[in-house]
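Long-time lurker. I teach an intro course on protein structure, and each term I like to show students one example going from raw sequence to a predicted 3D structure in token notation. This year I'd like something fresh instead of my usual example. Would anyone be willing to generate the tokens for the chain below so I can use it in lecture? Attribution to the forum is fine with me.
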Amino acid sequence: MVSFTVRMTFRPEDREEIAQVLRELTRLSRQEAGCISYIPHHVESDPDTILIYEQYTDEAAAEAHRATPHFAKYAIGVLYQKMLERSRETLTAIA
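-- Reply from a regular --
Happy to contribute to a lecture. Here you go:
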């Protein structure tokens, strides 16, 4: 299993558009065969920061996610264009 988080920061004026984009990206991502979990969050202490927790069956499934039309449309086409900062952390399960 492959797990990671993606943290992105946006402008306050983009907050509602980003939430709408994430709802659609989430809906479509969860339909992917290799997607185990795809959960976007607002960071409570910073509502302009989004943290997405993602799990896939393997690295091939994560790569397939990044090759989908909905990833191109919503992540690359909107989120990547509007984000101010982005970081990704790969996770290793303890148990």
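Some talking points for your students: The domain at 2-91 is CATH 3.30.70.100 (Alpha-Beta Plaits). DSSP finds three helices and four strands in the chain.
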